[in-house]
C-alpha cells in the first residue's frame, strides 16, 4: 500500500514497513534501542516483530502491565527509572509496539525523557492503527479522566502491519472499527456507506479500508496539527464517549468498556443531538443508529448513571472558558465544531438511546 506522508513523518504499510525501519536504523546513529510493550504484546506481537530487526544496537525490552488502568503517570515514572538504569541517553531510540495504551504512553515517555528522545510507533490493534498512533498525540490518564496529561509530538515514523490484527479478539476489532465509522461520518459519506452492511465487506480488501481511515485522519490533522480548529472534528462521539468510558472505568459495579464501545454510544448520542439541532435528517439519524446498534451490544444506563456522566463532561479537553463544546455532524460526511449543548438535550439523547 502507498506510503502516507504525515506532518514531518511517514506512515509505512505492510511489506515496505520493516525495510524502511531497518534503513532508518542504518542511516541514523542511535546509541541504543528500547522497545516498550505491554504484557499482551510481549506474548502476541514481540516474537513476530523482533526477527525483522536488522541492527547491531543493544536492544532492551521494557514491559508494563496491559490495560487502560495502567496508562498513568505512575507507570511513566517506573519506565523513566528503568530507562535511566539501563543507560538511556539523548541519542536513544524508543519503539512502541502495541495498542493505543502503548503508543499513547510510550510516545509520552519518549517525548519527556531527557526533554525528548526519538520514537517510532508500531501499532498492533485496529484502534491504534487507524487512530491512536497517527496525529502526534501522546499522553496518559489522570485518575479515571482520559488523556488529561500529554503532549503533541510526532514520531519519526509509523509502521502499520495489518497481520498483527490476527492476534485480536472480535471485541477488539469492533473497538477499532468505531473510529473507522467516525471517519466516514465526519469526512467521507461514501466511506461510511461501505459499513452499512458488514456482511457485504470483502475482508480480503480490509487493508484498503484501514489505509483510507488513516488517510482521513491524516488529512484532518495536517490542516490543524495542534487542534485549534478543524482537528476538533475527530472528537465526534468522544465528548460523551470519553465521559461514559471514564464513568464505567471508575464504577465498581460496571463492566469496563473498550474505547470503541464507549465511542459507539457517544456517536449515537451526538448524532441524536445533531438531529435535534437540525443538522442531520431523521433518516440519516436512523441509519446511523441502526448501523451502530447492529455492530455493538446495547449498554444499559440506569437513571443514577446519567448525572455522574454529565459531571465528567466538564473535564473534556475541548472545553473553553467553562463551556462544554461538541463536534456535531452536519449531514453525513460533514462536521460542525464548537457547538454548545444543554444538559436537557443530552439527557434526552440518553432516553432515545435507551428506547
Automatic annotation (TrEMBL):
Keywords: Cobalt, Lyase, Metal-binding, NAD, Nucleotide-binding, Zinc. This is 3-dehydroquinate synthase. Its EC number is 4.2.3.4. Pfam families: DHQ_synthase, DHQS_C. GO terms for molecular function: 3-dehydroquinate synthase activity. The lineage of its organism: Bacteria, Pseudomonadati, Bacteroidota, Flavobacteriia, Flavobacteriales. The keyword Cell cycle does not apply. SUPFAM superfamilies: Dehydroquinate synthase-like. Catalyzes the conversion of 3-deoxy-D-arabino-heptulosonate 7-phosphate (DAHP) to dehydroquinate (DHQ). Residues 176-319 form the 3-dehydroquinate synthase C-terminal domain. Its cofactor is Co(2+); NAD(+). Residues 62-174 form the 3-dehydroquinate synthase N-terminal domain. CDD domains: DHQS. It comes from Flavobacterium polysaccharolyticum. It is an enzyme of class 4 (lyase). InterPro entries: Dehydroquinate_synthase, DHQ_synth_AroB, DHQ_synth_fam, DHQS/DOIS_N, DHQS_C.
Amino acid at each position: 500500500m502507498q506510503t502516507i506522508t504525515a506532518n514531518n513523518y511517514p506512515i509505512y504499510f505492510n511489506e515496505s514497513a520493516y525495510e524502511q525501519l531497518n534503513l532508518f536504523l542504518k542511516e541514523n546513529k542511535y546509541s541504543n534501542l528500547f522497545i516498550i510493550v505491554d504484557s499482551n504484546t510481549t506474548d502476541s506481537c514481540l516474537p513476530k516483530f523482533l526477527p525483522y530487526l536488522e541492527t547491531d544496537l543493544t536492544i532492551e525490552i521494557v514491559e508494563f502491565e496491559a490495560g487502560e488502568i495502567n496508562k498513568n503517570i505512575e507507570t511513566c515514572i517506573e519506565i523513566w527509572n528503568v530507562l535511566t538504569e539501563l543507560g538511556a541517553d539523548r541519542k536513544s531510540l524508543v519503539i512502541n509496539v502495541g495498542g493505543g495504551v502503548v503508543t499513547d504512553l510510550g510516545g509520552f515517555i519518549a517525548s519527556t525523557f531527557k526533554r525528548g528522545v526519538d520514537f517510532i510507533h508500531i501499532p498492533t490493534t485496529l484502534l491504534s492503527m487507524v487512530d491512536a498512533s497517527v496525529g502526534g498525540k501522546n499522553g496518559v490518564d489522570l485518575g479515571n479522566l482520559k488523556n488529561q496529561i500529554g503532549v503533541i509530538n510526532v514520531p519519526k515514523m509509523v509502521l502499520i502491519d495489518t497481520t498483527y490484527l490476527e492476534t485480536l479478539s472480535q471485541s477488539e476489532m469492533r473497538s477499532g472499527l468505531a473510529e473507522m465509522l467516525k471517519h466516514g461520518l465526519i469526512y467521507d459519506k461514501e466511506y461510511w456507506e461501505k459499513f452499512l452492511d458488514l456482511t457485504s465487506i470483502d475482508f480480503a480488501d480490509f487493508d484498503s479500508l484501514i489505509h483510507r481511515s488513516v488517510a482521513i485522519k491524516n488529512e484532518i490533522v495536517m490542516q490543524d496539527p495542534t487542534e485549534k480548529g478543524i482537528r476538533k472534528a475527530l472528537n465526534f462521539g468522544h465528548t460523551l464517549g470519553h465521559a461514559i468510558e471514564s464513568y464505567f472505568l471508575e464504577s465498581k459495579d460496571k463492566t469496563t468498556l473498550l474505547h470503541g464501545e464507549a465511542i459507539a454510544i457517544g456517536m449515537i448520542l451526538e448524532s441524536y443531538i445533531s438531529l435535534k439541532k437540525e443538522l442531520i435528517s431523521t433518516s440519516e439519524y436512523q441509519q446511523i443508529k441502526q448501523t451502530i446498534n447492529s455492530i455493538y451490544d446495547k449498554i444499559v444506563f440506569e437513571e443514577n448513571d446519567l448525572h455522574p456522566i454529565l459531571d465528567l463532561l466538564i473535564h473534556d479537553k475541548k472545553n473553553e472558558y467553562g463551556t462544554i463544546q461538541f463536534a456535531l455532524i452536519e449531514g453525513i460526511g460533514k462536521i460542525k465544531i464548537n457547538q454548545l449543548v444543554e444538559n436537557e438535550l443530552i439527557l434526552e439523547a440518553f432516553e432515545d438511546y435507551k428506547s
